[in-house]
What does this fold into?
Amino acid sequence: MRKKIVAGNWKMNLLDEEVINYVVDFNSKKGEIESEVEIIIFPASLYLDTMISMPDWDIKIGAQNCSQHKSGAFTGEISAEMLRDFDYDCENLHYCLVGHSERRAYFNETNTILAQKVDRLLECELKPIYCCGEELEQRKSESHFEVVKSQIIEGLFHLDEKQILNLVIAYEPVWAIGTGETATSKQAQEMHQFIRETLKEKYNEEVANSISILYGGSCKPSNAKELFSQPDIDGGLIGGASLEVDSFIQIINSI
Ligand code: PEP
It folds into this structure.
């Protein structure tokens, strides 16, 4: 049985007081959550501490980014080791996003750099959520399968069987992120199945069937159920709709 996950990527949103209000509101509505699902929230790194310091906060949290370097003169960066050190027993912080399309596009993160980030996280026993997805032009020119395949091969296929089982993949078509345009459940399922086939070719069926693959891209309460009902979609990575407690809980309950 693969793990079902719904994760909220807050990006560069919410200040300290808003984080506190969110947690209080979320905690008061936790009883409404009906699904057996792992919930993760990715706040801005500066507020990871605010979240885990809140009473009764037992939801997993993750970092949105880490450096590909172990340590050294990299001003402004946070290392995987620092993330681990922040919550040494991994009671709350287990995950880190890698390769979100905004990082690929605005910070020039290549598959090679992302492969290094994956290594740094695994060395520190943190779980990468490795994001992949094609741009609109690539879908239009029907090169989307090829693009996603090379993101997977170049970012992940240096890992051995044991290592790859410690990560989650998120398929996020770039044209659907923050645009209101969602991939149809058929388009999403097709790509998730393709990613699983790609994993099977490199590793084996057991590995391919064990890795959770999340969908991300304008997922909201109105379309989450349809997307999550697809056989190869194991949950979602939610941007905008995770910033509001009620819509996030509705998406969680769509699993
Ligand atoms: C994201 O940023 O990972 C994302 C999926 O954003 P949105 O849900 O807003 O499209």
The chain has twelve helices and eight strands.
